[in-house]
TrEMBL record:
Protein name: Uncharacterized protein
Biased amino acid composition, Basic and acidic residues: 803-815
InterPro entries for the chain: DUF5682, LolB
Pfam family for this entry, one: DUF5682
Compositionally biased residues, Acidic residues: 116-134
Organism this protein belongs to: Streptomyces glebosus
Length: 822
């Protein structure tokens, strides 16, 4: 077999690992020596026409051949290639020397129909790490938990006395510097072919029961190439397949194995790939553990240890680690010393990690995760030429992103958008439309700055699988706008629940799909008319109100949405009071969420703006009436009565002493302690509940008086509820409350609004002392970064006593300290 593999008079079989720098260098050295008339590569034959694109300047690995079924784009397969992949090196060598290239693996038309080659994109996301055997065979077989497959690399490593197959392969193959020269260029392939031949004689197909079909097709393609180019051809394939290709079989037997295979129409193109997707832990069966490290070994064959540790030092300095040149020198010495002690030809990642930990990490693993993510794996994103074949939808996406200056990147980054700017508004539309199509290039996230509706924050990251999603979404249309419109209309027709349709309406407004909105609105009206569940209605209302608000902000006509939202709110108002009766603890907690969501929605929907002012006030008034009905009904759980009271208080709907009256009733001796504790949780729960008690002495006194009167037998029942309520307060608020309770009742209660001026809070005067207030203006101007604004004449005169006549008149409109309207 070794004679046949290396013999100049017959096909040269170069068995490789599909992603390995040593294999790639060895392949190029072998091709330089043999100078074949044609190069055959393991891969889908449908990609033969795409080979010339690999020579273009716009092609930058890592890239992948993507094949998908035309009638079902979700059935797709990838053949990834990195710069250090032997197949890529063979292809580039052939293109540089004008040598024809042919792919010889089983056609994608058959493998996709059988579902036995690469996993689909969805399967790839959830696949478990596969056996190292796949690294030698290409990893392009389907996996089954019931199959038992040998690990050829593991068997050879064990025979050589290694306990780690990865380390054995690196020492024997990947750490080879030049890959051989002259007559020795073919020696590694002959030795590997002989080893694989022994394994195949012992284990047969090794549990890879689909390999015989693939190998039969490879032999047929090899025979065809020999008829076309003669015996002077080179074959680059997984080392596991070399014995099968060298074995003598008849053409009839090989064709018999291929007879009756299912077939589908396929499309093939190049797509960008990433180092992270080359990693084995991503689910790629032929993946490697350290694509960034392998890329470094390929690009820096001379002094790789020194260059790698220099990269590590640069990365750590960027992250504010104190790393000097002396650290690099000492780490190099330690890594090389460890390699010598362990009998390795070159320091590998294990030795380098140990050296970094000891020298640069001060004996800790702190920098290890950073180095692994940024260097060992890396986030390199490939690039394909613009004239590569693509579905029309992909072409429209590319045109749009170039116009909007959006660049696909492998590294995750945040993008802040100001929707008042035309370019940012276009970016927002594109990203929202892609999300609706199931192409999550970007995910919206909470902005760290403004929370206004004119700003959006996106987290962007381009994943190779999105190319498959684009192909799948191509069934909806040839442009992003038409495809998103068609899919939105289809989802509206098939939506099962009201909340689902309201969320879709929100997405249509964000994506600005005017042609889809009428269809969605009709579906929304139909669902709303048929759904009588108050919980469903309350759950759907916030998204619908947000849609109205987005329509206002983005200049979209949202009148129909506002009408539906108002009608939905009215139905919630009618249905909520009876829905709050007789609920258990879990039901009350869920209904509390509906109360809060509806309250917020009514606040947005009923904002008194322009011609909607009267209607907005009426809506809020009806909502306030519903809250009063809930807060005063004894059959409603205390949690909901307390929450309704709090919402009324926040909106100023209770008047003087209203909150004290309702709290006094809820905390009266006749109320069960657990019910009273639930009332307190609803009223004073949340992060701002503590501040309410801090600033309202009467409410705090009522809570304190009730709590001290809880019977001992009931205290253990109410304690968990109270702990849950007060645990939400900030530590400073809890400390202040404790101090207020320790000091006891205030010497004078706060005066409610409308009381006589002489009923003042201790420490506060009856009016505004303008001279004292103006004294802080210089400091405020400095902190806020504002100009003088005519405040100079407001500077107080220390020698002049305060003038009571200059104090604020409560009957005047609210003015600022300068007399200008706020």
């Amino acid at each position: 077999m070794s004679e046949r593999t290396a013999n100049r008079g017959g096909p040269v079989l170069l068995g490789v690992r599909h992603h390995g720098p040593g294999s790639a260098r060895a392949v190029r050295a072998a091709l330089e020596q043999c100078r074949p008339a044609a190069v055959l590569i393991e891969g889908p034959p449908e990609a033969d026409e795409l080979v010339p694109l690999a020579a273009q300047e716009g092609m930058r690995p890592p890239v992948a051949l993507l094949a998908h079924a035309q009638d079902d784009p979700g059935r797709a397969a990838f053949w990834p290639l990195a710069e250090f992949s032997p197949e890529w090196g063979a292809m580039r060598w052939a293109l540089a020397h004008g040598v024809p290239v042919r792919f010889i693996d089983l056609p994608a038309a058959h493998s996709l129909a059988r579902g036995d080659d690469e996993e689909t994109a969805d399967d790839r996301e959830t696949a478990d790490d596969q056996e190292t055997a796949d690294e030698a065979t290409g990893g392009q077989e389907a996996r089954s938990g019931a199959e038992v497959r040998i690990d050829p690399i593991g068997v050879l490593a064990e025979a050589a006395g290694y306990d780690d197959p990865e380390r054995w392969w690196e020492d024997v193959i990947e750490h080879r510097g030049s890959g051989g020269a002259g007559a020795d260029a073919l020696a590694p392939f002959a030795a590997l072919a002989e080893a694989m031949g022994a394994l195949r004689e012992t284990y047969g197909d090794g549990g890879h029961d689909r390999d015989p079909v693939r190998e039969a097709h490879m032999r047929l393609r090899l025979r065809a190439a020999r008829r076309e180019f003669g015996n002077d051809v080179a074959v680059v394939c997984g080392a596991w397949h070399v014995p099968a290709l060298a074995r003598r079989t008849t053409m009839t037997a090989d064709r018999q194995l291929l007879k009756g295979l299912p077939k589908v129409k396929t499309a093939v193109t190049w797509v960008p790939w990433t180092h992270r997707r080359l990693a084995r832990r991503s689910g790629y069966g032929a993946g490697i553990a350290s694509p960034g490290w392998y890329g470094h070994l390929f690009s820096a064959p001379d002094r790789p240890v020194e260059r790698w540790l220099t990269k590590v030092a640069g990365l750590l300095r960027e992250e504010d680690y104190a790393v000097s040149s002396a650290h690099v020198i000492e780490a190099v010495r330690l890594a090389e010393g460890l390699a010598t002690v362990r009998g390795r030809p070159l320091a590998g990642l294990t030795e380098l990690d140990d050296a970094v930990r000891a020298v640069m990490g001060d004996g800790t693993d702190a920098p290890s995760s950073l180095i692994h993510d940024r260097l060992v794996v890396g986030e390199v994103l490939g690039k394909v030429p613009e004239d590569a074949p693509a579905v029309p939808l992909q072409q429209d996406i590319d045109r749009s992103r170039r116009t909007l200056r959006l660049k696909p990147e492998a590294l995750e980054r945040e993008l802040e958008l100001d929707l008042r700017k035309e370019t940012d508004a276009g970016r927002s539309r594109l990203l929202h439309r892609l999300r609706l199509l199931g192409i999550p290039w970007g995910e919206p996230t909470r902005s760290r700055g403004s929370t206004g509706t004119f700003r959006e924050t996106w987290r962007l990251r381009w994943e190779p699988e999105l190319s498959v999603r684009v192909a799948e979404a191509g069934i909806w249309g040839t442009t992003v706008l038409s495809a998103a419109t068609a899919k939105a209309a289809s989802e509206a027709a098939g939506a099962a629940g009201l909340a689902e349709v309201t969320a879709l309406a929100e997405r249509c407004l964000l994506a600005e799909l005017p042609d889809a909105l009428p269809v969605v609105m009709q579906a929304l009206s139909d669902r709303a008319a048929l759904d009588a569940d108050v919980g469903h209605l309350a759950q759907a209302l916030p998204a619908l109100v947000r849609s109205v608000r987005y329509g206002d902000v983005r200049g979209t006509d949202a009148a129909a949405l506002r009408e539906v939202a108002t009608g939905l709110a009215e139905r919630v108002f009618v249905g909520l009071p009876p829905a709050c009766l007789g609920l258990d603890a879990d039901g009350a907690a869920e209904m509390r969420g509906h109360l809060d969501a509806t309250h917020q929605a009514v606040g947005l929907l009923g904002q008194p703006e322009s011609e909607r002012q009267a209607g907005g006030k009426q809506l809020r008034a009806r909502w306030a009436g519903m809250l009063r009905a809930v807060s005063e009904r004894d059959a409603v759980p205390g949690l909901l009565r307390g929450r309704a009271t709090r919402l009324l208080l926040d909106d100023g709907e209770l008047g003087d002493g209203g909150a004290e009256r309702l709290m006094g009733l809820a905390l009266s001796p006749g109320t069960p302690p657990t019910e009273a504790a639930g009332w307190i949780e609803g009223f004073a729960g949340g992060g701002d509940g503590g501040m309410l008690l801090v600033h309202d002495a009467r409410l705090l006194a009522l809570v304190d008086g009730w709590l001290t009167g809880v019977p001992d037998a009931a205290f253990t029942d109410v304690l968990p509820l109270l702990r849950r309520t007060f645990a939400e307060y900030e530590s400073g608020v809890r400390r202040t409350l404790g101090e207020l309770v320790r000091r006891g009742p205030a010497t004078a209660p706060r005066h409610p609004a409308g009381d006589a001026p002489d009923a003042a809070v201790p420490g506060f005067g009856p009016g505004l002392d303008r001279d004292r207030a103006a004294a802080v203006l210089p400091t405020l101007r400095m902190l806020l970064g504002i100009g003088q604004h005519g405040f100079d004449d407001e500077q107080p005169d220390p020698s002049r006593p305060a003038d009571p006549s200059r104090r604020a008149d409560p009957s005047r409109p609210a003015d600022d300290l300068t007399g200008a309207r706020t």
